[in-house]
Amino acid sequence: MRRQGLFRLHHEEDGVTAVIIALCLISLFGMLVLVVDVGGLLWKRREMVSGADAAALAAAKTCSVPVANDPTDPEVQADTAAMANVGGLVGGDGTIVDNPWNCGVSSRVPRGYITVQYSYPQKLFFAGIFGASSRTVTTAATAAWGPLAGGNAVPIVLESSQFQGSCDVPNLAKGEECTFWYNNGNAAIGDANWGFLNLDQWDVAVSANCSSGGGSASRGDYILNNYGSALPLAEPGPTYVCSMTGHATDNWQDLNDRMNGTGCDATPCPGPVILMPVNDCDQQVDKNGGVVPCGSGTPDKFAIIGFTTLELSKIYKGDDPLAIGVPDASGSCPNNATLGTASAGLYGFGGWSVDAIATSTCGAPSAPTSISNLVVSKKQGNTVTTYVQCTPTTITNACDYVYNSTARTIDWYNPATRTGANAYEVAFNWTVAGHEGACGVRSSDPNAICLVTTWLGYTDQNGEVGTGPDFGTQGHVLCDFTYNSCPAGVKP
């Protein structure tokens, strides 16, 4: 009997199922924690990385613009970008943690970097069983800014100083009009090359032979559609680029078409905003590698030191008065300019127009701006009678005629000295004031081009940041000092 009892106990399995279920529940909750909570943490971290990246770029873009152009607080821009990318994030969940140049509402520098950091308390649903109700997810990002070091440009060079026009980019107000003059005359940028670049021969050695590749057809395509890839600047600069021989009127028409949004390959067309390579006249070279400054000869290679962004508004030919203006002119009317007979009646019943005499008899190109030294006389044999002039405010009995300097008219006043036909002669000096055209006052040249553009202020493009001078087009890039990916020249 006893052996049977022991045998029965040995085969008793009551309670085993409960143990198995308990173990399974623990495993199940572990899987739930792994899938739901850990998965949620990973998803939130990914969201936070995107938010921190957006915040760093937003702050960098703000820091790249002078306070006079945009006094926005970079902290506000960073927080706004972060919250737009991370659900539930609020402004107090992060900040700018590394700002060595004190970029803010009153201080900006042309290049630098900024680091942001954000934290978010991610709620845990199942991990609370193990004593954890939430975990903080923290991410940081760094963005650098500075002059753009590569871009999809047009093959037309812009001189870095005021050699071509009145604007010294970027030292001017946003929205200011800038004009630039292209021709092949003396003291012209590019001389016989008209400032055209061969973008297919970019970043060549000073001693390289420039070929004729990338002719007018390719140049027109690049004007209409931009170059197909970003053209990088050499570090250190300048970047030598072959000039393009041959002036093609069609290429200026291509630029006009681009301004009007027609003729391009893309939809929509790139439009009137163009990225222009900026040349340093003092470093451009001839075929032998010798420096040939602007106005002293035709360069074989331009010395590109940066990029600038402008918006086309007008393209004039070089013989258009709207482009070249009208120079000052002056002359005189000789004593034999005949007035003719004074009108019948007393003062106020007629007279002569001095402007009409100046343009019809005395060579003035238009109505004079000013008249001086006016004299009315009569010559009989060797005797010359000079008549007495008065003005409308100084009429006396001694007056022979009245000169109205405002209306520029002569009216006879004294009936006693009124004589017959062709009795009077007039002499005076005239001046016609000139005026500037869009490109100043220049000699007429039907082949020259006057570009009228608008400075858009500081603009940004995602792209590399260079160490060269600042021409208002800024690059912005995410980077990491740990992996040495931040551009040179941005560290404090």
**What's the main sheet like?**
6 strands, mixed
Specify the helix fraction band: 10-25%
Span between termini: 93 Å
How many separate helices?
A: 7
**Low-confidence stretches at least 5 residues in length (pLDDT < 50)?**
none
- Along the chain, the helix and strand elements come as HHHEEEEEEHEEHEEHEEHEEEEEEEEE
Please tell me the overall pLDDT.
84
Strand content: 25-35%
Label the structural class.
Answer: alpha+beta
C-alpha Rg (nearest Å): 40 Å
Principal-axes geometry comes out as elongated
Question: How many separate domains make up the residues?
Answer: 3
Give a count of the beta strands, DSSP E runs of length 2 or more.
21
Report on the architecture of this protein.
Helices cover 21% and strands 28% of the residues. With 492 residues, it is an alpha+beta fold. Strands 5, 6, 8, 9, 10 and 19 form a six-stranded mixed β-sheet that branches. The N and C termini lie far apart (93 Å).
Kindly list the characteristics that best describe this protein.
492 residues, alpha+beta, 3 domains, 6-stranded mixed β-sheet, 5-stranded mixed β-sheet, 21% helix
